[in-house]
């Protein structure tokens, strides 16, 4: 799969190129700002973009705005945003445009290559990946209906769903059976009053409810 990287730090940009190429991605462009990012995506139509949240010239939310443009104009291109700090609204903004093929991670995750690559591949395959620290802050902040209906274990499960984990990965993380995870997820759907639909759709709706963007 072809990839475009947008990161103003030369050292991190070079490192990302090496990591992606080592696991089989073809990096077709590595740029330093949002303008170059949009031009590269238009030219190469990559399968996935890895972009910094803050880039020149303002170092505010240029990467987020570019990502939202990409998701609108080229929805087949997955986007993984990297941030120095936890900024929940950026994750919510990104997911509000499209609920598949998106991710938001702290830059420190790149140092753990296996976890970073796992998240990147989930996003590239059309899944989601939210940084565990973002999820943890959202869990602390949310104390009102409908999430207050959930048990502590159900909140754990929903948090891992928000990270983009599969049922099997949730079961392994919580040291429970797959069937127990399935029961917790069905209970979450019921308590969040999500209508009957494909489970994949209801998972997305549950995460959006969690992020308050749906």
Which short descriptors sum up this protein?
single chain; 214 residues; Arc Repressor Mutant, subunit A; 6-stranded parallel β-sheet; 6 strands; elongated
Describe it.
- There is one protein chain.
- This protein has 214 residues and is of the alpha/beta class.
- The chain folds into 2 domains: 2-131, 3-Layer(aba) Sandwich (Rossmann fold), CATH 3.40.50; 142-211, Winged helix-like DNA-binding domain superfamily/Winged helix DNA-binding domain (Arc Repressor Mutant, subunit A), CATH 1.10.10.10.
- Helices cover 54% and strands 14% of the residues.
- It has a 6-stranded parallel beta sheet, sandwiched between helices.
- The mean pLDDT is 86.
List strands and helices in order, with pairings.
Layout: E1 2-6, H1 10-22, E2 26-31, H2 34-44, E3 48-52, H3 62-73, E4 78-83, H4 88-97, E5 102-106, H5 113-124, E6 128-130, H6 132-141, H7 152-163, H8 167-174, H9 178-191, H10 199-211
Parallel strand pairs: 1-2, 1-3, 3-4, 4-5, 5-6
- CATH architecture tag of the largest domain: 3-Layer(aba) Sandwich
Relative strand content: 5-15%
Distance between the termini: 30 Å
> What do the pLDDT scores average to?
86
CATH class category of the largest domain: Alpha Beta
Q: What is the number of beta strands?
A: 6
Task: Look up the CATH topology of the largest domain.
Answer: Rossmann fold
Number of helices: 10
Low-confidence stretches: none
Query: In one word, what is the shape?
Result: elongated
Helix content: 40-55%
Give the total of domains: 2
Radius of gyration: 17 Å
């Amino acid at each position: 799969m072809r990839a475009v990287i947008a990161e103003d730090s030369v050292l991190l940009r070079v490192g990302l190129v090496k990591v992606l190429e080592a696991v089989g991605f073809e990096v077709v462009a590595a740029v330093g700002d949002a303008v170059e990012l949009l031009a590269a995506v238009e030219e190469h139509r990559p399968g996935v973009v890895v972009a910094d949240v803050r880039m020149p010239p303002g170092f505010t939310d240029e990467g987020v705005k570019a990502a939202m443009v990409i998701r609108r104009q080229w929805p087949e291109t997955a986007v993984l945003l990297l941030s120095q700090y936890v900024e929940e609204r950026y994750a919510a903004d990104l997911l509000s445009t499209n609920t598949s093929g998106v991710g938001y991670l702290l830059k420190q995750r790149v140092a753990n290559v296996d976890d970073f690559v796992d998240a990147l591949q989930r996003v590239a395959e059309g899944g989601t990946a939210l940084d565990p620290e973002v999820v943890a802050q959202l869990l602390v902040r949310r104390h009102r209906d409908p999430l207050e209906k959930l048990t502590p274990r159900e909140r754990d499960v929903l948090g891992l769903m928000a990270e983009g984990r599969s049922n099997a990965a949730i079961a392994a993380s919580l040291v429970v059976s797959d069937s127990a995870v399935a029961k917790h997820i069905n209970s979450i759907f019921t308590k969040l009053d999500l209508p009957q639909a494909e489970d994949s759709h209801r998972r997305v709706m549950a995460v959006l409810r969690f992020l308050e963007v749906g």
